[in-house]
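Q: Got a minute? One more chain.
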Amino acid sequence: MSESVLSVDAALGRLLAAAVAVREQETYPTAAALGRVLALPLVATVTVPPLDNAAMDGYALRLGDWRAEAWLPVSQRIPAGAIGQALEPGTAARIFTGAPVPAGADCVVMQEDCETCDDQVRITHPPRPGSHIRRAGEDIRSGQTVLAAGARLGPAQLGVAASVGATELTLYRRLKAAVFFTGDEIVMPGQPLAPGRIYNSNRASLIALLTQLGIEVIDLGQVPDRLDATVAALEQASRAADVVITSGGVSVGEEDHIKTAVQQLGRIEMWQVAMKPGKPLVYGRLGGNLGGNLGGHLGDSDFLGLPGNPVSAFVVFCLFVRPFLLRRMGAEARPAAAFTVAAGFDWPKPGKRREFLRARLQDGRAMIYPNQSSGVLTSLAWADGLVDIEAGASVSHGDPVRFLPLSELLK
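A: Always. Here it is, folded:
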């Protein structure tokens, strides 16, 4: 185990290098595949759209038949889902959005640019070649790979799959994550709140973050601050899940037993990141030969130990755990998109660690929450992003700062 404090980039790189994607596959209904990861590429067996079709309600005609102020007889009516006849020269066809353009027509004029009288139409604006026609195959060609293996299936991806008629998809199996929480000072909502106790907010946040990723969550609840209880919980979790995630107990206090327990059952690969909030972050492996120290042997489950402070746990999950889990799920872990905005605040005292400040965009500037304590969870409910400040840097009002939207860190 390395005792050195890693930079944010080095820690993320190490985690992603250690993340091994699940390989088991299953066939699953497309309609129920939201959030899952595609194991095999999806190849279209149809062309979309299959025929040239109208992009607007209006009239289809030959451009050469148009004359200013001239009236054209309407020779046919083509609703969506119907196939019209070849267009007679010197006529127009009434056509509706999505309907195939009849042979011979080379433009569609939207109905707002037309006048009608009885069974005739006059085009009031000069048409253009190909106007308002969606060409066959302009979206998808038969034989084209429309979704690559490793694609995480959101609403748009499922729409693409449906557009080529896919009723089932080959997916990686769902990743299983077991979670438990340490700290004798925390109690579950609904229980009496004795003096010196606080409610467990991390359980609600962490389970929600995992569920949002489409991961199967095994909730082992609260574990007492004792080494034997921590070892037993880790042993149970490792048998049940691909990844074990805990919150709390990863610091160096006398009541922090996670590090020792993981070392009894496997090994620690990484501990501590030079960032604020969230310096304590443990990554290791738990072995299949549970009950003894496995030395250099890598086990069967990944272990991720998050800080106990709620903001620290949330930020560490977004920046490190989420991309790690996406890669374990078989998805491509792409960096979260960030952009530069002007600071609407002063940060005059350079920190020794890279800092991620809870912030909100307002009038094009990043405003930070007044209290940046790692225990102030309301700052995350208020924020819509994080301002990323490098170690040793100070910020003055108006300076450019890097802004990470929470929408990017949570999608």
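A: The chain has four domains: 8-23+174-328, 25-46+145-172, 53-134, 339-410.
Q: Perfect, thanks.
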